[in-house]
């Protein structure tokens, strides 16, 4: 499979969103991509950089190689030595990683995350999600989204068998460096639920119906989101017995992570029926193509212009 070309998905199967969540909704995968983007290439270097077992590291490197996010290059044959190099597919994930860094830095206490400097203006900066068409900042409420030809909730969640294995590995000792992000993305129902919340769903029964999820799982995910202050539970004015779940300021601030993940997914995974999601920036009326601008100088942020301090 060429890493320059998108992966063609099976008709009627998981769409680009489901495929993306199956890959990125795992902390070890995110950490490996982070290290690879920082220049780590060899097995021993990955092992030294994070508290990961040999079995999990081998499985993730094989997965990332199979999915075109890393390229395995044998540089010595006797004894066999290989390195894992980034590809266009993994390098294009840097906006997503930048969004996670910025959100965790601002909203999750107790982090010792590195500072980042925009070398164009030589200032420490925060990325501002903007529309590539008009250049203006783009908040979640300014994005109109509707399902595309391959889009529905059932096709937008990862395959259960894969996620059950990954969840069990995380329980037995994940690194814990992206704790709240993994609460949102690291569970197949949680990731779908946050998408439903951004689509305007607020009631328990509506979450249950939209996701076709067991009520116990919906209740569990809603409790988890309330616990990390991504959702707030309120009473309905007309029906006090109905609880409603609304995105908090912290929850709405997660939108750049969602936006960049969706952008990446629909660039690299294609269903024969067409896109999973269609998004419009209502401010300018153009198809929404997210990009980051520097909050200090307002210019577009490119990967080459970010320096870690």
From TrEMBL:
Q: Is Ribonucleoprotein set as a keyword in this record?
A: no
One short Pfam name that applies is HxlR
Which SUPFAM superfamilies does the UniProt record give? Answer: Winged helix' DNA-binding domain
Matching entries from InterPro entries are given as: HTH_HxlR (IPR002577), WH-like_DNA-bd_sf (IPR036388), WH_DNA-bd_sf (IPR036390)
Q: Which UniProt keywords apply?
A: DNA-binding, Transcription, Transcription regulation
> Does Transmembrane show up as a keyword for this record?
no
Superkingdom field: Bacteria
**Where's the HTH hxlR-type domain?**
13-112, 175-273
User: PROSITE patterns annotated for this entry?
Assistant: HTH_HXLR
PANTHER family registered for this protein in UniProt:
TRANSCRIPTIONAL REGULATOR, MARR FAMILY, TRANSCRIPTIONAL REGULATORY PROTEIN
Name the chain's protein: Helix-turn-helix domain-containing protein
* Organism encoding this protein: Cryptosporangium japonicum
